[in-house]
Amino acid sequence: MIQYSINELESLTGIKAHTIRIWEKRYGLLKPERTDTNIRHYSNDELRKLINVTTLYNGGMKISHIVNLSENELNEKITELINTSQSEQTAVYEPYIGNLITASLTFDEVSFEKNFSNAILRYGLANTYQFILLPVLQRIGILWNTEKINPGQEHFISNLVLQKIYSAIDGLQPSANSEEKWLLFLPQHEFHEIGLLIANYLLRNAGKKVIYLGSRVPYDALVQTAQFNKPTHLMLVIVRNQPADELQEYLDKLSIEFKDLKIIITGNTALLSQVKIKKPMILISSFEEFVKEI
């Protein structure tokens, strides 16, 4: 059985560990088990409950009211929050985020499909990716990094998300007259493709021409493709942890080889902060920055 520390619960829900402890002591909200050294650890059920409570709490409901709700009442209140008309408030995205995280961790494809489809109908594809899917991936990424997701869960989550993005891209017509031509790729040892696919969708949706090479592209193949297609932009996403000096060497090589192109790089912010980004390379640190760039 997967177990979570209180710090992992904080990262997944945004509720401070200190606040979680207060809610436990004052309201008996969660009932964690403890190790021989008195360290709390939480089950999937406890995580699911805290996600639901957090959803209502962020939606403006008082914790003293939430803790008195039954499980059915919790679900009803979350449904009411989803149906609220206050679509500009970030809190209304939280029910979808929480439900998608829970569905992902429990292999519940039906729930994932229902919540994702409803979000798209309500907010549109671009907003769903920005305000719902990306937070889900960021929070679940915490579990990937701490190895609290087993390989089966990782493949399940990744493939569900990939299916949705591929479907969205298939619904767009390729641009025939864009002056910008973007060549999207992942370096040879990179295989986490979700971020690059989201960029692919956003660029195509903005009317840009895209040449999508996908993951694990050998350097020589990248050069040959660029020579043939003459892109105006290159874009790559760095996710895999690697020595900073190796990444620096690769980025320097790109900067020299493609000095006449605009090169967009994003991804692992902790790793990218350790390297020097040289012209013509531009570091994109957020979704909003990328939207402005295109």
List keywords for this structure.
294 residues, alpha/beta, two-stranded antiparallel ribbon, 14 helices, 7 strands, 12% strand
Tell me what you see in this structure.
The protein is α/β, with parallel strands linked by helices and 294 residues long. It contains 14 helices and seven strands. The strands form two sheets. Strands 4-3-5-6-7 form a five-stranded parallel β-sheet, sandwiched between helices. The protein has helices at 6-13, 17-27, 44-58, 63-66, 71-82, 94-105, 109-123, 125-145, 151-170, 194-205, 219-229, 244-257, 269-272, 287-293, and strands spanning 33-34, 40-41, 181-187, 209-217, 233-238, 262-267, 281-283. Helix 10 links the parallel strand 3 (181-187) and strand 4 (209-217). The N and C termini lie far apart (44 Å). Helix 6 packs antiparallel against helix 7. It is globular, with a radius of gyration of 21 Å.
